[in-house]
Amino acid sequence: MQRILMRQMKDNQSGTIAAIKANGELGRRIRDMGLVPGTPIKIQGRAPLYDPVALRVMNFTLTLRNKEADFIEVDVE
Amino acid sequence: MKTEAVIALSGNPNSGKTTLFNALTGARQHVGNYPGVTVEKKVGVYTAGNARIRIVDLPGTYSLTAYSLEEVVTRDFLVNEKPDLVIDIVDASNLERNLYLAVQFLELGVPLCIALNMMDVAKSRGIEINVERLRTLLGVPVVPTVARTGRGKRELMETAEKAAAASGPTPLRISYGDDLDRALMEMEKEIQAHCFLTATYPAHWVALKYMENDEQILAKGRAADPQLSKRLEQAIRKVSDHLMATTGNYPEALIADQRYGYIYSILKQGVLSRRTDQHRLYHSDKIDKVLTHRVMGPVVMLLIILGLYHFTFTYSEIPVAWVEGLFEWLGALTVATIPEGMVRSLIVSGIIDGVGGVLSFVPLIMMMFFGIAVLEDSGYLARMAFMLDRVFSLFGLHGSSVMAYIVSGGIAGGCAVPGVMATRTLRSPKERLATLLTAPFMNCGAKLPVFALLIAAFFKENEALFMFAITLVSWTGALAVAKLLRVTVIRGEPTPFVMELPPYRFPVLKGLLIHTWERTWQYIKKAGTVILAISILLWALMSFPRLPASERAAVLAQLKTSAAADTSAFENASEGEKLRNANAALGEAALRYSVAGRIGVALERISRLAGFDWRVNIALIGGFAAKEVVVSTLGTAYSLGEIDVEESLPLSEKLAASPGWRPLTALSLLLFTVFYTPCFITVICISREAGSWKWGIFSMIFNTLLAFVLAITLFQAGRFLGY
Question: What's the sign of the alpha-carbon dihedral B465, B712, B420, B493?
């Protein structure tokens, strides 16, 4: 078990949200979409220019810019 | 006393809310705006037996914070209009996240009924939901539905009617952890004691929003009772510091966590069971493996854009020609019935040409919006935004900006009117404004005749190269200006890209048609009012004051003298040709004598810097009506009489032979045409979409100044280099 930033995760890698370090609008938007500590996620892929990133949360696909993914810490195997 | 029940539909984007709204109300809808904002307000009527219920379609939201316009509108509607019931449409295949909004409705204490939509999708994904249990645990009615087929619609409305008649529920209280609960309790006591905002909101909710640092409620609180507000804010700061030290999180983060905790605890009590792994690939993900693939993705996207273009601009040609034909016929009819003079000129050139020009866009707009609606409803538009966001975000825009650019003429030949209207799919206000202000720099179909004329006159050998270069210049200019705007007048942090990629779905035809008709109708309504007035104004500018008889005689005398100098040509000219020459000369003189002509002449002093004489100036003024008018006005100004916009060869030759014209002049005019003010139809659309006339006027002035600066720079640099 190791804690990394979401940006560093590889395609198809799974993990569990450990912490959201963003506040204000960004933080709230991230949480509104269900990214709260304890939520399992899986990186689904990245856009052709490697940004944004698409991830599977619960039962849907969410996209975030890499800059925004930098505020999210994930526990991975 | 209310005569009919009012029910508000609410829910996450992509939860099938609009489909349910369409299924409930059919075509009996009215689209308006919420006061002061550009968020659409749709109202419809549901009837069954004796029941007649007014249904308000609230904007799709994920949450009830005060960050987006949609959320504020939803909240304000709920507390101010107090609907009898809120139906929250919840995507059953995605229950956890969708219930987050439901919990916030319960916290606010609005009477709620949950429509558990997309039950079929949930089932196919191996998700089982115990509806009865969910109803008991949440304490509100829950009705399973499938909006696409209309299943459950009747049961939903029967339940809703009963629920609306029942007394309102008490606001839900969930535990946000000991520290927060204690602080909230104390704040609530004070709020209650001072009746602080309690006329509108429940006391507990005010405390909660203060704790969440909600800007709208904070502002209202400070206005209502500054001292109490200050005390509350101090109390919060204490808790906040404590929580920050112990948990490393702000209260608002903990509150969100606890809401999700509450949802999970409900779902775990036998509500939700999954038969399959939740990370397994669905059809939609398999499609995405191709459509957002690193190489295939952009290729397919290009093909789809070209396809959309082909579909709209090729197939709309025929109906556009019908509409234009109709107005030409009307014009000819007027010419035949009304004697020549000012009245006829007003009706033909002012009214029929003006309104006809506007209405001839209607088939184009209909097909364009049908196409965009298909892309949007199928879920592909979100993928386009996903793939292109990297590029657009560099310039302070959003991935979704691409649609507006493309439609406006990002591939030469679009139209800025539907382009500006297409920015509605953008949910980030700053990015949206920057997009709709820069989209008109793209090369719409009406600028093409101007380019064709100038290229044919001076750069005939390199036609394709020049067209390509102009397209590049437009894109570069639009993106650069967008960046400029985003660091000056529309500056601010980028709106987060946190966006859902909805599963691919087949669009519902009824929804597509309703959507297309709404957009088209909004456009037509404008044509009848403002556009008609401006069209008449422009006509008047170019017709008055009329050429006095003495001036007419002078022009004719001059024509005779010059003809006498060149007798052979004069002898050879037929009577018809002489008449045409005389009319053309009179046309030029009349145009020069008009207000527009005088403005053109007066502006010559500064426009000379960019290489434009008074004729070009008048033509550019005329181009404000519609860009292709530049060509026909130049025709009149160069005494060529009526010029067919599509067949401007004689004018090309005339320009090429004119002493005042050289390739550098043409380049300067090309550049100016790309960037100067959008036509007035676009300006009106910009004002409408931006929600203020300020932005329409801004685009006229700013764009023209920008175009002028660019043209002068080019012209003077060229002159310096000896061109």
Answer: positive
Closest CA to B441 of B686, B649, B136, B191: B686
Give chain A's domain count: 1
Cα-based distances in Å from B588 to B285, B457, B634, B663, B723: 64, 21, 10, 24, 30
Separation between Cα atoms, residue B338 and residue B430, nearest integer Å: 51
The helix/strand/coil state of A40 is strand
A59 and B94 in contact by Cβ < 8 A? yes
Predicted confidence band of residue B465 (pLDDT cuts 50, 70, 90): confident
Q: How far apart are CA B341 and CA B335, in angstroms?
A: 10
| Residue B524's pLDDT band (cuts 50, 70, 90) | confident
Residues in chain A with CB shorter than 8 Å from the CB of B493 are 25
Q: Quickly tell me which residue has 């069954």 as its tokens.
A: B48
- Cα torsion through B202, B208, B211, B213, rounded to 10: -70
| Cis status, amide bond into B494, omega within 30 of 0 | no
CATH number of the domain at A46, please: 2.30.30.90
**pLDDT on residue B1:** 40
- Tell me, yes or no, if the two domains B5-165 and B178-274 fold the same way: no
- Rounded to a whole number of angstroms, the distance from the CA of A32 to the nearest CA of chain B is 6
SS3 state of residue B214: coil
At B570, the amino acid letter reads F
Is B643's pLDDT higher than 70? Answer: no
Query: In CATH, which of 3.30.1490.20, 3.40.228.10, 3.40.50.150, 1.10.287.1770 is domain B178-274?
Result: 1.10.287.1770
Query: Tell me: the pLDDT tens digits for B567-576?
Result: 555 556 677 7
Which pTM does this prediction carry? Answer: 0.85
User: A-chain residues within 8 Å CB-CB of B497?
Assistant: 52, 63-65, 68
Predicted confidence (pLDDT) at residue B107 exceeds the cutoff of 70: yes
Q: Which of B218, B498, B504 to mutate to test the interface with A (most CBs of A within 10 A)?
A: B498
CB contact under 8 A, B285 and A44: yes
Helix (H, G, I), strand (E, B) or coil at A47: coil
Mutate to test the interface with A, among B276, B499, B505 (most CBs of A within 10 A): B499
Q: Which residues span the domain enclosing A61?
A: 2-76
Is A36 in contact with B97 (Cβ distance < 8 A)? no
The interface pTM score, or ipTM, of the predicted complex is 0.96
Three-state DSSP at B502 gives: coil
Give the tens place of pLDDT for each residue, B534-564. 778 888 888 888 888 888 888 888 877 776 6
Residues of B in contact with A29 (CB under 8 A): 62, 67, 496, 498
Q: Where does B268-362 show beta strands of DSSP type E?
A: 272-274
pLDDT band (50, 70, 90) for residue B672:
very high
The CATH architecture one would assign to domain B5-165 is: 3-Layer(aba) Sandwich (3.40)
CB contact (8 A) between residue B498 and residue A36: no
Helix or strand (DSSP H, E) at B378: helix B362-378
